[in-house]
């Protein structure tokens, strides 16, 4: 079989592990030919292809980013996009596609699958909010990086008696904020799942700084918002593809906290450093497992499904079940983050 492979949406560490696994397993076990598309769905529409042989994937396992390139582009939203996809697949004699991406890429994959194309999806996003899988590729690396940042900021916070705000990625879900917050011992963790009340934050900080500490760490997900009817007015600012304007919520919180408490406050926006560099062992392993599972699925005739981790097992989830859903941080994890303040 000639299988097309693409990586779409924001990059994550661990994507090259998927590409390597698809090429190795696909060619050696089944004798498939793997054709890479450059820059996500954009490359399928433009017919921008790249050969993927075993030689091409040598030494890529430990490398961050994606050797295929990526883009935020959805063929069903572009004029004639779906027709262009069909035309490229015919011209390149591609019989099936493996799409690695987050909710946007999966949604596009579902739209393309509805036109009769055989597709298997693989979930990746540092936000970890793809519905249907316990974990997405890239999340573990992002949490590791964010935790190290919290650790480092701890020492300077204490030296300067400051309130330190660390803004992490997470548009619709606060997975990175909660896990890095717990692992790094943050005093306050703010997430999109639990809109906050600035009065509660100020009360907590004043009490803590009066009673037993001279510094505090607040980890905020970029998509966190104030609860309706509370004192702080703020609406999340997003770009064309729903990506959040980084720093907005962090800077806004700094202003509110400084004005209301008088405490010296600083903001660190971790931004794309969370998505860069070497993948952790967990992301390399997850990427490898998902790559193998996707090739197996297509080889067994299973399509319109996404690979997913459920407990210890990799399973296949029907793509139609993902439509319009994201995976929020569960209440018990949010509770742990707030209890250990
Ligand atoms: O892909 C998820 C994500 O990392 C979000 O957390 C963040 O809002 C967005 O990507 C940033 O997008 P871009 O790389 O396009 O700036």
Strand order of the main beta sheet, please?
3-2-1-4-5-10-11
CATH topology of the largest domain: Rossmann fold
**Which CATH architecture of the largest domain is right?**
3-Layer(aba) Sandwich
Give me the number of helical elements.
Answer: 10
Query: What Rg, in angstroms, do the CA atoms define?
Result: 22 Å
Question: What small-molecule ligands were found?
Answer: 6-O-phosphono-beta-D-fructofuranose
Give a summary of the structure in a few sentences.
This protein has 341 residues and is α/β, with parallel strands linked by helices.
Write the layout of secondary structure elements.
Elements: E1 2-7, H1 15-30, E2 33-37, H2 41-46, E3 49-52, H3 81-91, E4 96-101, H4 103-113, E5 119-123, H5 139-160, E6 163-168, H6 175-184, E7 188-190, H7 198-211, E8 216-221, H8 248-261, E9 265-269, H9 281-299, E10 305-310, E11 313-318, H10 331-339
Parallel strand pairs: 1-2, 1-4, 4-5, 5-10, 6-8, 6-9, 7-8
Antiparallel strand pairs: 2-3, 10-11
Helix pairs in contact: 1-9, 5-6, 6-10, 7-8
The structure holds 6-O-phosphono-beta-D-fructofuranose.
Structure description:
The chain folds into 2 domains: 2-138 and 279-321, 3-Layer(aba) Sandwich (Rossmann fold), CATH 3.40.50.450; 142-276, Phosphofructokinase domain (Rossmann fold, 3-Layer(aba) Sandwich), CATH 3.40.50. The mean pLDDT is 96. It is elongated, with a radius of gyration of 22 Å. The protein is α/β, with parallel strands linked by helices. The longest helix is centred in the middle third of the chain and has 22 residues, at 139-160. The protein has 10 helices and 11 strands. Strands 3-2-1-4-5-10-11 form a 7-stranded mixed β-sheet, sandwiched between helices. Strands 7-8-6-9 form a 4-stranded parallel β-sheet, with helices on both faces. It has helices at residues 15-30, 41-46, 81-91, 103-113, 139-160, 175-184, 198-211, 248-261, 281-299, 331-339, and strands at residues 2-7, 33-37, 49-52, 96-101, 119-123, 163-168, 188-190, 216-221, 265-269, 305-310, 313-318. The structure holds 6-O-phosphono-beta-D-fructofuranose. The site of 6-O-phosphono-beta-D-fructofuranose (F6P) has 14 residues, from loops.
């Amino acid at each position: 079989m000639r299988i097309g492979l693409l990586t779409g949406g924001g990059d994550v560490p661990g994507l090259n592990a998927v590409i390597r696994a698809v090429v190795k397993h696909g060619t050696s076990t089944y004798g498939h030919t793997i054709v890479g598309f450059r820059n996500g769905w954009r490359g399928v529409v433009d017919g921008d292809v790249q050969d993927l042989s075993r030689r091409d994937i040598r030494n890529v396992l430990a490398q961050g980013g994606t050797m295929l390139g990526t883009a935020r582009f959805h063929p069903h939203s572009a004029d004639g996009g779906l027709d262009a996809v069909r035309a490229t697949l015919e011209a390149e004699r591609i019989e099936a596609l493996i799409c690695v991406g987050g909710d946007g890429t999966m949604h596009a994959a579902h739209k393309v699958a509805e036109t009769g194309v055989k597709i298997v999806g693989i979930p990746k996003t540092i936000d970890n909010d793809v519905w249907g899988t316990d974990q997405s590729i890239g999340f573990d690396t992002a949490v590791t990086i964010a935790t190290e940042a919290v650790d480092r900021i701890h020492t300077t916070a204490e030296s300067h008696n400051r309130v330190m705000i660390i803004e992490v990625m997470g548009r619709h879900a606060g997975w990175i904020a909660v896990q890095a917050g717990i692992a790094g011992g943050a005093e306050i963790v703010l997430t999109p799942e639990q809109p906050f009340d600035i009065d509660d934050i100020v009360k907590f900080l004043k009490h803590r700084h009066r009673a037993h500490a001279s510094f505090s760490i607040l980890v905020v997900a970029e998509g966190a918002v104030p609860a309706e009817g509370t004192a702080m007015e703020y609406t999340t600012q997003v770009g064309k593809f729903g990506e959040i304007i980084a720093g907005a919520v962090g800077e806004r919180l700094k202003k509110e906290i400084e004005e209301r408490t008088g405490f010296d406050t600083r903001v660190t926006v971790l931004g794309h450093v969370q998505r860069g560099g070497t993948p952790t062992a967990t992301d390399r392993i997850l990427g490898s497992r998902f790559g193998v599972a996707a090739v197996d699925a297509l080889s067994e005739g299973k399509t319109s499904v996404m690979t997913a981790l459920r407990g210890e097992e990799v399973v296949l989830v029907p793509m139609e079940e993902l439509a319009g859903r994201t995976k929020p941080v569960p209440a018990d994890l949010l509770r742990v983050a707030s209890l250990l303040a």
